[in-house]
Amino acid sequence: MKKLGHKMILASAGSGKTYALTNRFVQLLACGAPPERIVALTFTRKAAGEFFDEILNKLARAALDPKEAARIGADIGEPQLETADFLRMLRSMVDAMHRLSLGTLDGFFAKVVRAFPLELGLGGDFEILQEHGVQLERQRVLRQLFARAGGELDEAQVDFIEAFKRATFGAEEKRLATRLDRFIDEHQNAFLDAPDGEAWGNPRRIWPAGSAWLVKTGDTNGATEVLRRWAPGACANEKQQKRWDDFLEALDSWAPGAAMAKPIDYVMVKALEVWAALGEEDVELIIERKKQMVPPEIGAALKVLVREVFRGELTRRLEMTQGIHTVLSGYEAIYHDLVRRAGKLTFADVQRLLMPEAGAPGLSSGGEGEDGRLFVDWRLDAKYDHWLLDEFQDTSHGQWSVLRNLIDEAVQDPEGRRSLFYVGDVKQAIYAWRGGDPRLFREIFDHYNEAAPGTIEEGRLDQSWRSGPAIMATVNRVFGDAAVLARLLPAVAAERWTREWREHVSAKPQLGGQVMWLHGADDEARAALTLKLLSEINPLDRGLSVAVLVQSNDAATWLADYLRREGGLPAVAASDLHVCMDNPLTTAVLALLQAAAHPGDRFAWEHVCMTPLVGLLESGEGLTREVLRQMNEEGFARTVETWLRRLEPVVANDAFSRERARQLTEAAQRFDETGGREVAEFVQFAERHVVRDAETAAVVRVMTVHKSKGLGFDVVVLPDLEGNALSTRRRDGLAVQRTEDRAVEWVLDMPPKLFHEHDEVLAAHVAEAEADAVYEKLCLFYVATTRAKRAMYLITKPVGEKSTSANFPRLLTETLGTAEPGELAHVGDWACDAVFAKGDAEWFEEIPCVDEVVAETDENAGISTIGQIAGVVRYPARTPSGTKAGVVSGAALFGATSAGAASFGTAVHKAFAAVEWGGMTAEGLATWKAAGLGDSVVAEACACLESSGLSGVFAHEPGAEVWRERMFEIVLDGAWITGVFDRVVLNRDATGRVITAAVYDFKTDRVACGGEMEVVARYTGQMTVYRQAAARLAGLPEAHVRCVLVLTALRCAIEVATTGAD
Amino acid sequence: MPSPRLHVLPWSQPLIHAVTAWLARGWAGEGPLDLTGTLVVVPTGQSERRLREALASHAATRNQAVFPPRVVMPAELAMLNAPAVGVATKSELLLAWVQTLLDADFDALREVFPKDPPQRNFAWAARLANEFIRLQATLTENGLRMADVPMRAGENFPEFARWQQLGELEAACEAVLAEHGLYDPQAVKIAFARNPAPPNGISRIIVAGTPDPLPLAVKVLAAYAESGLLVDVLVSGPAEAGEAATLFDGWGRPVPEAWATRSFSPADFAQRVRLCADPAAQADVIVACALGYGTPGGKLDVGVADGEVLPSLENGFARAGVPVFNPEGRPLRGGSLYTLLAALAELVTREPSFASVSALVRCPDVLAWLGGSPATLLAGLDDLHAKHLPATLAAARAKARPGVVANGLEEINRLRALLLVGVFPENVRTVLTEIFKAREFDQARPEDVRAIEAAQTWGGVLIELEVAVTRFPGLAAADVWELALRAFGDSQRFDDKPEGAVELQGWLELLWDDVPHLIVAGMNDGRVPDAVVGDAFLPEGLRERLGLKTNAARFARDAYLLHALEAVRAEGRGRLDLLVGKTSAAGDPLRPSRLLLQCADTDLPGRVAFLFSPAEAARPTPAWMRAWKLKPRTDAKIESLSVTSFRDYLKCPFRFYLKRGLKMEAIDPHKAELDAMDFGTLCHAALEAMGKLNSPVRDCTDANVLRGFLLEELNRAARANYGDYPALPLVVQLESARQRLSKLADVQAQLRADGWVIERTEWALDIVIGGMSVRGKIDRIDRNELTGEVRVIDYKTSDTPVNPVDAHVRGPKRTEDTDTLPEFARFAVGGEDAIWVDLQLPLYLEAVASEYGHAVACGYFNLPKAAGETGVAIWTGYDAEVQASAMRCAEGVVAAVKARRFWPPAELPVDRDEFGVLFPQGAEASVEWPVAEVRA
Ligand code: SF4
User: Fold this and answer.
1) pLDDT tens for residues A666-696?
2) What's the rounded Cα separation, in Å, for the pair B379 and B360?
3) Which pLDDT does position B571 carry in this prediction?
4) How many other CB atoms are found less than 10 A from the CB of residue B528?
């Protein structure tokens, strides 16, 4: 095939990443690459699905239309391609559909692990745990961890408690389970990245050269004394004096790890300001706005105390960190045993299994690879020649490390027949919190190009096919001003941003639109402005899509509610809807289940009583029995359904509630698949169960910026841009320092600012982390401002004169705020007080309102029936024993005799089936033994054959014919019956015509003497069927068929009379 | 060479009719239709069923009945007449593999196990054993053993050594079986197929409508044909003469080359194929169509190519009230006997957990067996759990007071004892007999019949296991249970077909269905045909080499099936609709089946555009609507108030009513540790003992002695309430209580030294305010023996110290319209507006006034988590005016309660509202409160 180079594409928002990717795919096909040798990976299943659909549609268009063919051919640099070529490619894609590697990274990894379970140390095949499963497993693990096997705590538990105490030092915790849950949420990933304790709270790792703060210096009691004596004489006023007193007193009761008391903080800050000189010479401190001279000996004493605080704090933090590690390893050890080893893995586990850092063998696409590698070509039936990676800025280092070997092989292919192509936008890197590592983008490029310059070609896509000129111009001004960014952002962040920044261009210069920036003092005011804008523009009636983007789910819910309430707009919080909990109907049904399973739950019970359900109930006792029985027998879906159905009349005219009802049933169905049978567990599941609202066009979608990634809307309103977003402080919690290749170097429960900013190592770490966080925030704003196609409205609080916070409104102020709004500040007819405006105020007026879309006719929506058909006749199926009546006692059913009796019965039947005519013979016995019949069976059969009571059953009559174990099929009384005759004897007359028949049915029931009639009653229905069947098969009137029950236990044969009455 | 005779039946006629007619040809209807001596091979159990029914039905037209042929599925062909003796059962085979794996020397098996397995125990071995057994079964399809693979895989087989070692493992397993005188069932089949004995009493064989018999079955059939048995192969196909030879091989198998390129292009393709957003949407379309028939049974059936659609379909039909029948049955794992057995299995663990006991008790049959009122028992158990947090059955038994709950627990323990003694499975039978001793199963009731069948299946499982366990002794009870549960859970339960049912069947069953209108759901890639991509043992490449079923063969089979399904309904004879899902239930994108893309090149772009377009708009979301307003009982009596309830009323009168009137309190069955209230109560117990009149430490000023006393009392209280061996979280919580009390000891010692004497503890107060009795308990009253001052103290164990003023009084919020608050809650201190949020301490003061006068101080004794903050916080600036205002407020509350003014509710953020679940979209809007009550 033709050679195609390797390519890195930096694509700005709206510049057609998908287009570039699909083009690349088509180009590969055009160059002769078999489709199954192309791996194309992205993050979401949805994106993968769309990608595939798009490739096929593109090929289909080009295969149909020569103009399209020419256009696409030109796009991919293969102008010679014709429709026939595209058709061929289309066919090859379709034929190889099941073999394509086109999906998510998670899916790809799972496929690989599934092919190498034993090589990767798994016990065998595995299942992927979904979210609910993970929760359940965690609860199970915690139960195990908490359980005490009688008597004393075991050693691991004692250690665990000790570690827990250490981990929460200074803030002892009275709720272990709750806290532990949080620990696991917050720290599990860090633990799995560095499972051995070496990196955790290890000072040698953090300060390889040692830290001055950890050295014990001087006598603190002495130092305290020195200060105590010095202060009274050295203070200018009472206030100063109080500062020192408070300091010393607070110091006395301060415990490291606890929140820093204000008096200590005050003095420490002062002391650290002059740290170098302190104790060396006279220094001046400003205490209570007055100077205070501190001579060297006092300074030295103060230094001792400050150092002690530092040492205490750092030491405690190190210990806490180690404690956290021990706690997590305690949990993880059990989790590993109980969950992973049992073959239940999360996608994260799957990925970790493949990571070389975690000891996994490298993957190889086969051929002459090194030993010890896993050859994916054989087990996965695939050779991977070409790699296409989408949204590369969100790829984590772990993910990359799994693919690295395979991609290395492609990039270093000596003949250049293989290739790498990756695309993404480092300006949209908003997933660092889940591992996204935008730096990889450049690193990989540099890595290959350093080795062999020009290996990877760099491409840029800066033309937006989404946004109009007004929006692009604004984006350029806000994000392209290097000087402003450098002023507002940490230097590293600003530099990283500016390095990859390129001026954006709109590919649709004719597209009318508007950008405007408005001020609103508070949430309410900004919401009101949003509403005002939307009512002016009236986008929905014009058929325009519209989104309101906010920073949090709560804000989305609130704002959507506001727009609905105040403006009557069809606004939908396009976040996850808790469909089982957001309405009276489903919560009532859940309460009913809870009340049934937990009759003491007064909350649930009263809740039920407040709803129409109360009219459907008889008694609480009955409810418990009914619900538990149904739920155990049929599962939650059916149980829930039963009650919803009873409520149906109440919600007959309420489409919304009926929709929720079906969503609850669906949730129950999902839960049933987990096999759970516990009500409380189901209620929990239902609480967590979320559904994304359908993406119907005609609504105002209110969503978080995160969720809007990848989407575009005609109109975008941004009313929630506040916050200290561009000077993000690192949050409390574990700091994880990584080496160049992202291995965990050290982990530390970071002490507060006062401490970390005075330690070089910690300060460096924090600065770096902060720069990353700020960069990500800037990305978030970039994403927000690049969603609009035509119009974008920014609404922020006015930035105060004195405000120094570096947030987004401020960035706007510094980049846009200087512009004169001029007379353009209109939205349609509405003259508004805009800070900034650009574009056409009347842009939307040219777009006519569309008439109500005519609802699709039902004909189109459904499958029509065939008119006028006679269906096929189907009989209900029965067996003769299906006509059995009577009751079976539980004891009989579950007792040993029952199971034994069944097999005994079968065996005895088998024995009799071997007998044609009566009398015991030696061969007969031998046959029985050979057939494996047990002694008791043989004995019983022999006894029967020899007994006088049964002699008639086996007696040979001349000319008679016998059916043994003979199966029949018959339609009787509209039912199809399948049965087996045990034994039927047919007697013929001289002409050979059958004149009578006797049906013998063997019953091995252990009947006591005198119980016969009961047995007969039980089997009458069955015998009637046999009689009818035999009559039909033998061509006799029923009256000529005798039916005889043979009771082997009693050795008696009882004739069952014909019953007119059943 | 004798070979089968292939008969192509015209596919314009339903296969089942054609086959029936063929079998009955020559039958004049004089006597029974006697097919004794004929062996018919059909593809599935359901097709066997259909054939029998069709024969009966056919005979019935002449008022006759049938002696049916012997009907088998291809896999059974290799077991005809095979001796049952000595063949290992499933359990025995599994246990043999388990033993083999546990004994294996991994160093000698590095090709198979490059890494040591994660754990060498029964669970691991059983899991892997099952995989190996499945693997063997797959190989058997073509008569292969693991050991055959290296030789059969041909040149350049990269996993030669690995399969050699697998062969060694297999041999080791066979050796284990041989020790017990057993054969591997697959090996037996292969051996049989090599030289199959003719089946007893069979004179001819007919292979009917079986497009992919296993290679092994074909081998057997070929041998029979060779031996002179007549073998006829019936296949439905196009009527065109001469085509058959190119379309099918001699065994009626579709020829891949022919079918893979055959175009599937019904005239109205676009009307017959429909894209649906998800399984629910597919179910909707189908159910709607069924309803269009009124009584759809016999007219419409549904093919379920993607099993994921099945639950939605079943629920959809259930909702619509249309009976359905699923011939595949459903696993017993979903039934109640399984749940009961699984819960019983938990009893044999070393220390059964309380959770497993409560699951067991909630099994309806256990509940019935325990007798009495289920509500009383279950509520009692929950109450026991909430109060004493027993982690185990033993702990629960130790804590239960005599009564229903205690009896119940003893009964459960008795079951446990029965399970622990005696021999499996006798002990299990004993226990079940006990539980079910009073239940009668009525054979006339379908649900009882189902229960009987489940019980019989279980009986069968036990018998098989009994033998297996005797052969392979030494298994732990839990392992035996696991085996039993797995075997039972995997068994299928078959429902009776209801009259007039729409049948829901798998893809491979559809060829045998003769219904005129057939809708196939889930026509998606990977479902039809199912495709194997990548495998740990048998990747496609190896399957090809070994002659196992390949993706290409599956594709050909399914292409044939699709054509056949269409052909029989073409030209107005019926209708075939195909549904293609866009996403799975979990939201994974799905692709249309490749079968639907089999068309002429000219049609392909159009097909693709059609099949890969976005699904029809999903159901539009209706706007949020309230199904109903809650109508709480309005008649709950509130005849007295507790001191703490004032806070509730002031926060929200309606929630007050729910809590104090209706006494709404939730139960958390997953509670694993003390809640704030339990924690406080526990600390209080020790503190009360310290302050009692007869307390030895009442006047103690030695912190160490005090500490010793408090900790001793704490331990006593903890033991009394939570037993000797509380669960881990409680251990930690107790530790926390200990720390707090330790610190308190220091403070208390100092207080005593300062002259503070504890006058009273836990003083029950009962005063009358506004004509209503108000009750409470004062933690302690201190008097200073030096100054004579008296103060009322309440202990607080919240994590952060509480300031009494902040706890009782708040200022108005910035945007708050205080006029909406009741007048009595508002007052002014020092000219500033203030609002009462709690009246606890003022009420205490009111209560003690009769005895101590009005010059009494009040405050909190905080025991927060930061030890340094432990201490007494006195309400400073408390004066008669404040007290008077508080009492005005108290009277206001009482008057309001008496007047039953519980409306309107406060609007609280849902996440901070314990009643939030009742109030979607606002509290006031959620409830219908009688207008009269509001006015009053
Ligand atoms: S034993 Fe405990 S939980 Fe049970 S009723 Fe008595 S007090 Fe309540």
Assistant:
1) 899 989 988 888 999 999 999 989 887 655 5
2) 15
3) 85
4) 27
Read off the pLDDT of residues A477-490 as tens digits, 9 standing for 90 and up: 999 999 999 988 88
What one-letter code names the amino acid at A108?
F
As given in the structure block, the two tokens for residue A69 are 């063919």
Q: Name the residue among B67, B497, B589 with its Cβ closest to that of A49.
A: B589
Distances (CA, A) of A867 to B292, B301, B566, B567: 10, 16, 18, 19
Q: Which of B615, B583, B614, B609 is nearest to B596 (CA)?
A: B609
- B640 forms beta bridges with B773
Ligand 1 pocket, B387 CB below 6 A? yes
Beta bridge partners of A41: A103, A389
B429/A899 touch (CB, cutoff 8 Å), yes or no: yes
The pLDDT score that the predictor gives to residue A947 is 82
Q: Are strands A576-577 and B517-521 parallel, antiparallel or unpaired?
A: unpaired
Q: Are B33 and B64 in contact (CB under 8 A)?
A: yes
Contacts of A225 (CB under 8 A, 6+ apart): none
DSSP for A125-167 reads: --EE--HHHHHHHHHHHHHHHH---SSSPPHHHHHHHHHHHHH
Residue A645, classified by CB atoms within 10 Å of its CB into exposed (0-12), middle (13-18) or buried (19+), is middle
* CB contact (8 A) between residue A886 and residue B57: no
- Give the residues of chain A that fall short of pLDDT 70: 1-2, 149-151, 169-174, 257-259, 367-371, 574-575, 693-698, 724-732, 801-802, 804, 818-824, 850-861, 882-885, 896-902, 919-921, 1059-1062
Measured over the CA atoms of residue B747, residue B750, residue B756 and residue B762, the dihedral's sign is positive
Short-list B469, B479, B435, B414, CA closest to B339: B435
By the 8 A CB rule, do A115 and A124 touch?
A: no
- The pLDDT, as a whole number, for residue A724 is 62
Identify the H or E element spanning B283: helix B279-292
Contact A288, A237 (CB under 8 A): yes
Distance, CA of A381 to CA of B811 (rounded, Å): 73
- The Cα B722–Cα B711 span in angstroms is 16
Nearest CA in chain B to A620: B375
Task: Name the residue with tokens 């009691």.
Answer: A221
Q: pTM for the full model?
A: 0.89
Amino acid type, A910: K
Q: How far is CA A329 from CA A192, A325, A326, A336, B923, in A?
A: 9, 6, 5, 10, 45
> Which residue, among B41, B427, B449, has the nearest Cα to B209 in the 3D structure?
B41
User: Dihedral of CA B66/B67/B69/B71: which sign?
Assistant: positive
CB contact under 8 A, A59 and B608: yes
pLDDT at A1: 62
Q: How far apart are CA A196 and CA B154, in angstroms?
A: 46
Residue B877, chain A, CB below 8 Å: the answer is no
Question: Could you tell me the distance, in angstroms and rounded to a whole number, from the CA of residue B723 to the centre of ligand 1?
Answer: 14
Determine what percent of chain B is predicted with pLDDT higher than 70: 98
Angle between helix axes B90-103 and B160-179 (nearest 10 degrees) is 120
**Strand ranges (DSSP E) for B458-568?**
492-493, 502-506, 517-521
Q: With beta carbons less than 8 A apart as the criterion, state whether B255 and B27 touch.
A: no
Instruction: State the count of interchain CB pairs (< 8 A) between A and B.
Output: 548
Mean pLDDT over each residue of chain A, to the nearest integer: 86
User: What is the value of ipTM here, to two decimals?
Assistant: 0.91
- Residue in B401, B407, B671 to alter for ligand 1 test, most ligand atoms within 8 A of Cβ: B401
Structure token pair of residue B223: 């041998």
Longest dimension (CA), chain A: 143
Cis peptide before B904 (omega within 30 of 0): yes
> Dmax of chain B from CA atoms?
123
What angle (nearest 5°) sits at the alpha carbon of residue A71, between those of residues A69 and A74?
Answer: 105
Instruction: Please say if the pLDDT value at position B291 is more than 60.
Output: yes
